[in-house]
Amino acid sequence: MKTEEIKQVVRDRYGKCAEISGGKESCCCPSEVPASSSFAAEHGLYGQEELSLVPEIALSLSKGCGNPTGFANLQTGEVVVDFGCGAGIDVILAAHKIRPGGKVVGVDGASQMIERAKQAVAEAGLQDRDIEFRNTYLNETQLPDSFADVVISNCVINLCPDKEAVYKEAFRILKPGGRLAISDIVYTERIDPQVQERFQSNWAGCVGGAIEEISYLRMIRETGFSQVEVVARHPLPPKELEDMACCPGPEFTPAPAKEDLAVVQEKVTSIKFIAVKPKTS
Ligand SMILES: C[S@@+](CC[C@H](N)C(=O)[O-])C[C@H]1O[C@@H](n2cnc3c(N)ncnc32)[C@H](O)[C@@H]1O
Question: Which of 158, 168, 201, 265 could be cross-linked to 185 through a Cys-Cys bond (beta carbons 3.0 to 4.6 Å apart)?
Fold first, then answer.
C-alpha cells in the first residue's frame, strides 16, 4: 500500500471504532476485557489518581502503550501538543498539569476520535480556551513554527508510514529547547521481512508499522533532536502483543496469524523516550 492509502486505512479504522463504540464499551481486542474496563486500566498504564480525572468515554477508547504525561515533566504555563490524541486521555491529563496559563492541542486524523475527545474534555469540565483540537494528519498540523514547549504522543507514530515527516513536523512546531515525550512500539531486533510484510498488511494494528528501535532512535537524531534518552522499556507479553497487533479491535483490524505472533514474541517492546530540540538549530 502507498503512504496515503495506509494513512486512510488507519484513520478509517480508528474513526469507525470511535463512532460505533461511543465510549459505552471497550473496543480493544481481547474479549476478556470487561466492557466497563479499558485498555489503559487493564494494562496498568495509569495510576488510580490519573484514571479518576478522565471520563469513561476517553478511558474506554484509550489505546496507548504508555503514559507520556507521566514522564514529560510538564510545568504550569507550558504549551503541549498531543500527536494522535485519540479520545483525549492524555490531553486531559496534560491540561491538569499546565494550568493556569498553559495550552494543550490534540491532533488526530480521525474526525470521530476528535469528537469523542471534545466530549471527554467537556465531561471533565475542562472545555475552554486552553484546549484545542485539530483534525489533520500529523505531518501537516498547520501549527506555527516554534509553537510548543512539549510534543507528547502515545502509541501513534508506529502507525505512521511517514514517520520522518511526522518527526520533522514535531521539530518544526517545537520551540528551541522544547522536548518530545513519546511512548511507542518498536521491534528490538530485525524481523524476518516476510513476517514483517504480513504485519504491514495490518497497519492499524500497533505492530503493522513498527520498525527496529535502533533505526527509530537514529531517525530522531537525524531529524535534529539531541539528548535522546529512553526512560523505560516494556517488552510486550503474549496477551498484550495480541491486543496491540489488532488495535483498535479485531472487528476493525484482522488479527494476525498465531504463527506470526509467535515469531515476533519477545521482539516487540513499548519504549518511552524523551528528546530535546537544541536551543540553536
Ligand atoms: C493507538 S491510537 C492511540 C490514541 C491515544 N494516543 C491514546 O493513547 O489513546 C492511535 C491514534 O492515532 C491516530 N493516528 C494514526 N495515524 C495518524 C496520522 N498519520 N495522523 C493523525 N492521526 C493519526 C488514530 O486516528 C488514533 O486515534
Answer: 158
